[in-house]
Automatic annotation (TrEMBL):
Family annotation (CDD domains): AdoMet_MTases
Role, per record: Catalyzes carboxymethyl transfer from carboxy-S-adenosyl-L-methionine (Cx-SAM) to 5-hydroxyuridine (ho5U) to form 5-carboxymethoxyuridine (cmo5U) at position 34 in tRNAs.
NCBIfam families for the chain: PRK15068.1 (NF011650), tRNA 5-methoxyuridine(34)/uridine 5-oxyacetic acid(34) synthase CmoB (TIGR00452)
Keyword Methyltransferase: yes
Name assigned to this protein: tRNA U34 carboxymethyltransferase
Enzyme class: transferase
Top-level taxon: Bacteria
Subunit architecture: Homotetramer.
Matching InterPro entries: CmoB, Mo5U34_MeTrfas-like, SAM-dependent_MTases_sf
Example GO biological process: tRNA wobble uridine modification
GO molecular function: methyltransferase activity; transferase activity, transferring alkyl or aryl (other than methyl) groups
EC number(s) recorded for this UniProt protein: 2.5.1.-
Length: 321
C-alpha cells in the first residue's frame, strides 16, 4: 500500500502543517473503504523496477531519460505493468523510452494556460481533481516548491505513484486521495488549480468558495471548465447526460462564470482563453479501452454532442483572493 508518511514529514514544518490535524485520520479511514482493486493497483507500482534516470525533463514534457536504453524485454515488462493501470486519461508521459499516449493531450491545455499564470517559481500549489498528475509535474517543471494534488480516484493515485517511481521518486509532487470538500480551510496555497471539475459539482458556488478557502490572500485561482456561448444569465443544465457523461450539472457562459466568481469574493476575474475541444486533443489510443470524444459527438455534426447540446468548449478563468 502507498505510504503517506513522507508527505506528513514534508509538510510538518510548512504552511500546510495545520492539515496534520485531520489528514492522517482521514487517510486511514479512506484506506479502510478503498476501491476493491486498490491493493492490486498498488502492487503494480511495487512491481515496477527501480530505474535511475539520467535526466528528468519536466519543462517541455514529463520525461525520464534512461542512463542507457532498455532492452526490448525490459520495456515490454514495464509496458505490461503500466497497462494494468488503464485507462490512462491525462498525459502523455515519456518514461525510459516508453511513450504512454494517454486519451488527453494534456500538454495542449498546459501550453494554453501557462503563458497567463503568475510565475510558479517557489510557490506552494494545490491541483484539485488532478487525475494522474500530469499537470502537477509540469508545475514542478516551472519551479514550484511543492505541488499537492487531490483526487479521490484510487486508480489515479496508483498511476501517479507509478510515474513518480519512474521519475527518480521525485518528492516535489504528492497526490492525496480526497475531495476538496473533505479539506479543512487551510488558506495556505499560493496558486490553486481546478481544471475540468466545476461542471461535475452539484453546487458550483460551493466549489468556488472551497477553492477560495485554500488560497492565501492575494493567491491566484486557475479555473478551467466547460462553457457555452451566451450572456450573464445563460447556463446549460443538461436534462440527463452531456457528451455521455451523467455527472454534468451546470455549464455556464463565460459571463455567468465570471459573475459566480465575483459573488464568491474573487477579485480581478478575467477570462484568458476559450477553446473548442478538438479530436486531436482528446482521442482513443492503445492506452484507453473506453470511448472518447469522437463517440460523444453527433456523427453528422461535430458542433453538437450526441444528445444535441453544444460540443465541448472550455474556458480558462484567472482570479485572485
Amino acid at each position: 500500500m502507498i505510504d503517506f508518511r513522507p508527505f506528513y514529514q514534508q509538510i510538518a514544518a510548512s504552511p500546510l502543517s495545520d492539515w496534520l490535524e485531520t489528514l492522517p485520520l482521514q487517510l486511514r479511514q479512506w484506506q479502510k473503504n478503498a476501491h476493491g482493486d486498490y491493493a492490486k493497483w498498488a502492487k503494480v507500482v511495487d512491481f515496477l523496477p527501480d530505474l535511475q534516470a539520467k535526466q528528468i525533463n519536466l519543462q517541455s514534457a514529463v520525461e525520464a531519460v534512461p542512463n542507457q536504453p532498455l532492452s526490448d524485454g525490459e520495456q515490454q515488462r514495464i509496458i505490461y505493468h503500466l497497462k494494468q493501470l488503464m485507462p490512462w486519461r491525462k498525459g502523455p508521459y515519456h518514461l525510459h523510452g516508453i511513450y504512454v499516449d494517454c486519451e488527453w493531450r494534456s500538454d495542449f491545455k498546459w501550453e494554453r494556460v501557462l503563458p497567463h499564470l503568475a510565475p510558479l517559481q517557489g510557490r506552494t500549489i494545490l491541483d484539485v481533481g488532478c487525475g494522474s498528475g500530469y499537470h502537477m509535474w509540469r508545475m514542478v517543471g516551472e519551479g514550484a516548491n511543492m505541488v499537492v494534488g487531490i483526487d479521490p480516484t484510487e486508480l489515479f493515485l496508483c498511476q501517479f505513484e507509478a510515474v513518480r517511481k519512474l521519475l527518480n521518486n521525485d518528492r516535489r509532487a504528492h497526490l492525496i486521495p480526497l475531495g476538496i470538500e473533505q479539506m479543512q480551510p487551510l488558506a495556505a496555497f499560493d496558486t490553486v488549480f481546478s481544471m475540468g471539475v466545476l461542471y461535475h459539482r452539484k453546487s458550483p458556488l460551493d466549489h468556488l468558495s472551497q477553492l477560495r478557502d485554500q488560497l492565501v490572500n492575494g493567491g491566484e485561482l486557475v479555473l478551467e471548465t466547460l462553457v457555452i456561448d451566451g450572456d450573464v444569465n445563460d447556463v446549460l443544465v443538461p436534462a440527463d447526460r452531456y457528451a455521455k457523461m451523467k455527472n454534468v450539472y451546470f455549464i455556464p457562459s463565460v459571463a455567468a462564470l465570471i459573475n459566480w466568481l465575483e459573488k464568491c469574493g474573487f477579485k480581478q476575474v478575467r477570462c484568458v482563453d476559450v477553446e473548442i475541444t478538438s479530436l486531436e486533443e482528446q482521442r482513443k489510443t492503445e492506452w484507453l479501452e473506453n470511448e472518447s470524444l469522437i463517440d460523444f459527438l453527433d456523427p453528422y455534426d461535430h458542433n453538437k454532442t450526441i444528445e444535441g447540446y453544444p460540443a465541448p468548449k472550455r474556458a480558462v478563468i484567472l482570479a485572485n483572493k
